[in-house]
Task: structure prediction
Amino acid sequence: MKPQTNSTPQRPAVLTIAGFDPTGGAGVLADAAVIRALGFHPLAVLTSVAAQGSSRITQIMALPRTLMSNEFDVISAEFRPAAVKIGMIYSPAAVRLTTYYLEEQPVPAVLDPILRASSGGELIQLYTVPLLQARLVPLCRVITPNITEAAYFLGREIRDASEAERAARELNRRWGTAVLLKGGHLSGEPEDILVDGGKVERFPHPRVAPNLRLRGAGCVTSAALTCGLAKGLELRDAVAYAQDYVRAALEGHYTSGNDPEIGFLPLPTRP
Result:
């Protein structure tokens, strides 16, 4: 029998289910950094590996179903995370295994439906999208598409803030779950739109470093939102918590590597 160590602090865990970006700008590396910075122990199930940089994607490989299943088994045997963030899901097998996991471990889940990289490559097999909407979306507390992703789901362009609100309302009705539409891709002062049960709330935020292409802001937002839910916050409070965190990260943005126009976000520690 292992000795009791009651003086050892207990830290709750948050799970990210996503792909691997070797530059650290997005994916499980970025998610895990946010999760740890916000006071949780990071867990990760890898769905895919993307040979991805700031300007191109060379190759994407989905992890074999058996390996992903074993990852979930290891997590389930030792942890019950306080919340789950789902990012680059890529393959039908990843959708099904994530669905099985959430059905067995019903905890708050945030789905960031990543369809394309900022460099332009596809980050999901397109025949995976209908399965994602039918099986995985209903199990999530909130879906966090950006403007481009929402336009894809709706099959039409979103050109301004009023169209963004209509899009968020329509996706909320279609999916039956909350939608946080990230509006940073629109011109003007950006704002995110939360629709939950038909109620609309707007979360404006300043545009920082317009001359840089900031990598990972979407991943950081959804990971911080997941941590807010893991803390037991109500959804709108978790969104505000995430926005405050991302705002602080944006203020400290930096560059690294050979391209001076690519910006990254520091991840400040917060209780």
The two ends are 33 Å apart (CA to CA).
